[in-house]
Amino acid sequence: MKSGCFPMWQSLSLSSLLGFMVAASLFGFTRRVRSFAQPWVTRCVLSDRNYILQIQKWHSGYLDKFFTVLSCVVSVPFYTGFLPLIFWSGHKQLFRQMTFLMAFCDYIGNSIKDVISAPRPSSPPVRRVTSTEDEKENAMEYGLPSSHALNTVCLAGYFLHYGMTFGHEMDGFSVLIWFSVVCLFVFLVSIGRVYLGMHGFIDVAAGIIIGLFILAFWLMVHDHINNFVVFGENVKYFWACLSFLLFFAYPTPELPTPSFSYHTAFNGVVFGIVSGTQQTHVLFHSNDVPPILTPQLSLLVFLGRMLVGIPTILLVKFCSKALAKWLLPVVCNTLGIPIRSSGYVPALKEIDRSKRKPDNKQNGYLQRAVSCLRHKTYDVDSGIRFFQYVGLGWSIVDLVPHIFSLLNL
């Protein structure tokens, strides 16, 4: 197969996703599912209220801090900082798989949230503890399923699988011990979400069940995905098309939530990682790369990588955002795509259409080609956020390793 020609399975995959999007829009898939599921889930959340209040009778400052810290440890910002350290420690496959799995969990979990649009436990009477900005933003999302429970099941479960497969050989007793640790961790995270007033039992149970299904599915396909990303044909072109379609293959919630912004961020990170891996696999992603605590990668060298790598990726993230804020509005205006900004670009905040001056300029071919889009405006912040995190993902697997090589790290 020549480079540049999509293999049949790639064309079929993208066409199927596009066909599903069109069919779901025409037949009102989100509206139909919501009308069926939302009332039932809402009743379950209301029935959980007394049980939540019973658990919260045991509240104390120590438990508040413990469960808040535990929630932060399994939050999206934590994994954003933790996952690069896995790659820089030499475990490149674990890094790729956990990042892709996190993005998949985020998409599935948040899509279900916004399809059903079921409320969280009402506060008051439930006491909701939101000690961090991250928790305050999480509280703006819908409830079912619990993303913390879902992500913990998938990522802790996959981490255990990776340790059993690629780590030191473990006997049956060791496997039982580590499995018990994972189960305890999932239980503490789940009960913590109820204790903090963020979820009802139905939300947590749904998160665990969905997480188990996602984990089982991922364990069947993860090797195929890894081989495709590392050795496949047309990977960057296929993933660029997939990332673009995933912008639109996302349900519209009943009311605006931050869930789509999380999906956009991970969508960008994954595309950045895929692009960087394709360019630098031989140098930084092959099986010859030494892991941490070996003569080639001592703990001191790893600490040096942290001190260099973390500021670098944060700087790239900042520069990518600044560049996208300047470039994307120019491109959209050139193409005649109507855009607005909900915060990143103050000059593009939506104004009353009746106050806009008519534009009498003659449209060119590009403007006429996208004239079908003029019935609505598009939030340019989503595109800015996407390219911001593309830069972040690319810098982790491409730019920063090159800097490590220059510094003999």
TrEMBL record:
<feature type="transmembrane region" description="Helical">
    <location>
        <begin position="201"/>
        <end position="221"/>
    </location>
</feature>
<feature type="transmembrane region" description="Helical">
    <location>
        <begin position="297"/>
        <end position="316"/>
    </location>
</feature>
<feature type="transmembrane region" description="Helical">
    <location>
        <begin position="173"/>
        <end position="195"/>
    </location>
</feature>
<protein>
    <recommendedName>
        <fullName>Phosphatidic acid phosphatase type 2/haloperoxidase domain-containing protein</fullName>
    </recommendedName>
</protein>
<keyword id="KW-0472">Membrane</keyword>
<keyword id="KW-1133">Transmembrane helix</keyword>
<feature type="transmembrane region" description="Helical">
    <location>
        <begin position="66"/>
        <end position="88"/>
    </location>
</feature>
<comment type="similarity">
    <text>Belongs to the type 2 lipid phosphate phosphatase family.</text>
</comment>
<dbReference type="Pfam" id="PF01569">
    <property type="entry name" value="PAP2"/>
</dbReference>
<dbReference type="GO" id="GO:0005789">
    <property type="term" value="C:endoplasmic reticulum membrane"/>
</dbReference>
<keyword id="KW-0812">Transmembrane</keyword>
<dbReference type="GO" id="GO:0042392">
    <property type="term" value="F:sphingosine-1-phosphate phosphatase activity"/>
</dbReference>
<feature type="domain" description="Phosphatidic acid phosphatase type 2/haloperoxidase">
    <location>
        <begin position="95"/>
        <end position="219"/>
    </location>
</feature>
<keyword id="KW-0378">Hydrolase</keyword>
<dbReference type="InterPro" id="IPR036938">
    <property type="entry name" value="PAP2/HPO_sf"/>
</dbReference>
<feature type="transmembrane region" description="Helical">
    <location>
        <begin position="228"/>
        <end position="250"/>
    </location>
</feature>
<keyword id="KW-0256">Endoplasmic reticulum</keyword>
<dbReference type="InterPro" id="IPR000326">
    <property type="entry name" value="PAP2/HPO"/>
</dbReference>
<feature type="transmembrane region" description="Helical">
    <location>
        <begin position="12"/>
        <end position="30"/>
    </location>
</feature>
